[in-house]
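S., here's the first fold you wanted:
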Amino acid sequence: MHSAQGSQPLTQAEIERGLQRLPVLSTTVMQVLDLMRRDDVDTTLVASTIARDPVLTARLLRLANSPFFGVAGKIASIKQACVVLGLHTVRNLAAAVSVSSSFQAVKGGTLDRRRLWQHALETAIAAQALARRCGHDSDVAFTAGLLHDLGKLVLDACFADTVQRIQGYQDKHLHDLAEAEKSVLGMDHGQLGAMVAKRWRLPELIQQVIADHHEAEGDAYHPLVDIVRLADVSSNKPVPDDPEQLGRHFPEESIRRLGLDLGTIQAWLAEVETSRAMADSLSDM
């Protein structure tokens, strides 16, 4: 951990006090998160659990009927969504939408939460497409992409004063965001988000992606971390047209670990670009 010049990072006790401001997740949300950890869950149980929350049901049905899934206007119930889109897709979407909705209800903060949700959707779509090309679970990649910036939501909801200090430190020292966060908070938003994901008992792989999506390394490395990391970059920075610059646009170690060549990256980005407009339409949901 880094220490800010002239001040100390927040103590564990201060972080714990801040986390007391976390939104209280509804019983339905907690049950949906629990369903994410189970492999033997059936369609009826997922549908009946989600249906207990009319707001979550309405938002999820809007997502399911969006052009992104190619079945616009055809899904009238959560059970039907499970059949058409697949049980895992609905379960993972419900969990991510639940978490996002919980934070949207929190007043205050300076974050543009609509823009963050749009970025999360763009990252999720890009991660899903890349995971499919790399032979990894695209459903988990989509969920991990949706939740990768959970720590930013936690900062905005629970540590508003600290966010201002981080911004001031970043402006003064010209550090990147993660370094400024470590200097002021004692950890970056990925580590903070993973701490909350662990409290909510999200799957360990999702926790790992949230923690490491800015710095993919370590003994417990999983390719999904690099997949979400590349997807995050594809959403955050304009992608250059020049193939010569494309290789330098993304973290080289992530490209190397995933075994990606230039042709695969270009094909992936072309696929993602066709879905970008859909992410814009989904961001209002």
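And the second, which I think is the more interesting of the pair:
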Amino acid sequence: MSKAAPQRLLITGSSGIAESAARLASQRGSDIFLLGNREEQCAALATSLPGAAYAVADVTDAAQVAAGVDAAYAAMGGIDSVFNVAGLSGRYAGDGPLHTCTSEAWSLMMDVHAKGTFHVCRSVLERWMERSARGAIVNMGSVLARHPQRDYFATHAYAASKGAIEAMTIAAAGYYAPYGIRLNVVTPGLVRTPMSERAQHDNKILGFMADKQPLYKGLVNADDVARVALFLLSEDAAAITGEIIRADGGWAVSG
């Protein structure tokens, strides 16, 4: 197995960056276990990957997450690494600038992103600590947590929930480093995934992104974000923990 491939990998989600990571890691020899809330999607992806398995779980439900982590242990004999990708846009629930953002959107973003990532991390860390196991976790952030854009991406509940993930990850990285457990965050810009479907058909946004993400002159490829995450989960990144790594195509440095 390549050093650049995590071994027994748990991924939350089953589309977009999660799907890209699962396919790339499987090609590199990793065992894959998917944890997602869309059974048909999880089943289809797992079936297409040699030896992969899945469990259906809502990451906002602690009991479902714990059961899913137990299922991953049963299927793979353990977990060496975790990539927390599961997430969604809150626009349909009213996410937007603070003065218009709905309480429903705020709660939704915090529940799925902050609480969901917490549930998965806690369940895996509990088992690693019980077994004195080393491991690596990469959590999904967003460039919007630190580099806002007011014209097209003023979704403040989404940004806040991703900022919470950053803070939790850095705090945990400091605590668990003596146990050989690493935690990092990857923060994409606008990525070509099902979640960005609205933007992909908006000519004004596409024109804007040609300058905002100049490395791509448009949207970032999901595979490229997945490769960054897989590097951080691999032994090639053994010295890296508590880092916020941007994979934003130049968003943050483009004004």
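Why I say that: Strands lie at 8-12, 31-36, 53-56, 81-84, 135-140, 181-188, 244-247. The chain has a mean pLDDT of 96.

Talk tomorrow,
H.
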